UniProtKB/TrEMBL annotation:
It holds the Pfam family START. GO terms for molecular function: cholesterol binding; cholesterol transfer activity. One of its GO terms (cellular component) is cytosol. This is STAR4 protein. InterPro entries: StarD4, START-like_dom_sf, START_lipid-bd_dom. PANTHER family: STAR-RELATED LIPID TRANSFER PROTEIN 4 (PTHR47006). One of its GO terms (biological process) is cholesterol transport involved in cholesterol storage. PROSITE patterns: START. Residues 29-207 form the START domain.
Amino acid sequence: MDSLPNPSLLATRLRNTLVRYHGIADGEWKVAKKTKDATVWRKPSEEFSGYLYKAQGVVEDVTNRIVDHIRPGPYRLDWDSLMTSMDILETFEENCCVMRYTTAGQLWNIIAPREFVDFSYTTSYEDGLLTCGISLDYGDVRPNFVRGFNHPCGWFCVPLKDCPNHSLLTGYIQTELRGMLPQSAVDTAMSSTLANFYSDLKNALKS
């Protein structure tokens, strides 16, 4: 089993990377999907041969409650239709952990179930919160799963200035699914998954 990196150094590096993504000019993004709940853009990733996706939408709730539903914890499995299991492997501080989770097959199982081991970190950002993560090569892969890899990912959630009980939720996702997959299938799945994430989250917050 690989040793874990220094959590405070990794957390700082991860936060700085996500803040840099958050500053990328609008003109560098190309719209990949638009729904009533969210818009999804993409651009070539600097980390691997796929895309960095950006998703954004307004969610009707306060920042803390939204982030509690996104970050590792008891809520996420209840509403995220893609996630099938989640275990916290290590906890460093209240806002910092290593988790292992599995995802369901997608696109009529063209994309088989995946397993990820991610370092997760939640911190303050402006008037709201940033919850972010990156995959680690850690532990053995369970049978019947392909081990995927999340390059730096994260969700910025900040209250709307003129309507503080609504929040602007902006996500940056770059997932390397690995395995033998047609790139077009991966691109279709990513755009749809991110758009569905918003509608599922909104339904969960209303219930």
